[in-house]
Amino acid sequence: MRNPYWRTRLANTPFVTYALLSVTFAVFLLETVNGGSTQTEVLVRYGARFNPYIILYGEWWRFITPMFVHVGLMHIVVNAVSMYYLGVLSERLFGHWRFLVIYLVSGIAGNVASFVFKPEVVSAGASTAIFGLLGAFLLLGDVFRDNPTVRMLARQFLAMAVINLAFNLFDSQVDMAGHIGGLLGGFLIAGVVGAPQIGTMSTSRRVVCAAVLVVAGVVLLRLGYAG
Fold first, then answer.
1. Would you say 24 and 76 are in contact if contact means Cβ atoms under 8 Å apart?
2. Contact between residue 140 and residue 93 where contact means Cβ atoms under 8 Å apart
3. Which of 43, 61, 164, 226 is the most buried (most CB within 10 A)?
């Protein structure tokens, strides 16, 4: 009887969310003790997106690392709360590895969009991936609209995304391109990996989502490097 119990417990434990939060806090601690998390030089040193380094030195990993770098205490607190709340729910609905893929691909998509449309800005933060989780719920709401619980969650997160984007319009320091890129990236990658715990997605939908994601990524990268 022990194996089923431990398997159930493992399946219901959001250890990927805990791991992502642990890495994020560890990076923030390193920023803080090595010059301060509000210093541009420190942010760039620890992986913030900085276009000249990506273009001139080929530091492609800066499309990944910015989601673990944060600017100041309030920034990491707000994002950590969102990561925990959305992460626990997403990991339960999508499963561990699918959740991780959605989180990382969304973050990368947001950073690629920021790379193209906000080239002059040094950007950092998990918000690209967080918006991706919102996008993933919108995908679930579209595919499983007959499920009342999923439909309710999708409406709530749609409202949350709209409100956040509306507030972004009045804050010049917020990377709107990154947020929208993460939102769309999350929607598309969720369509690719699916959510077997909820139901089955059609193969055609998954192929279309994959194709759009890849083509959009290639086009944006070409534009970013050309610009």
1. yes
2. yes
3. 43
Report residue 150 as tokens.
């999923």
Model confidence pLDDT, tens digit, residues 55-96: 989 999 999 999 999 999 999 999 999 999 999 999 999 999
Residue 127: active-site member: yes
The region that residue 201 occupies, defined by phi over 0 for left and psi between -120 and 50 for alpha, beta otherwise, is beta
- Which residue in the list 90, 106, 123, 127 is annotated as catalytic? 127
- 70 as an active site residue: the answer is no
Q: Which token pair is 179? A: 């947020």
Of the candidates 102, 125, 76, 95, the one whose C-alpha atom is nearest the C-alpha of residue 15 is 95
Amino acid at site 145:
R
Instruction: Look up residue 13 and give its DSSP letter.
Output: S
User: What integer is the mean pLDDT of 117-128?
Assistant: 93
- Residue 44: count of CB within 10 angstroms of its CB: 17
Which of 22, 123, 179, 204 is catalytic? The answer is 179
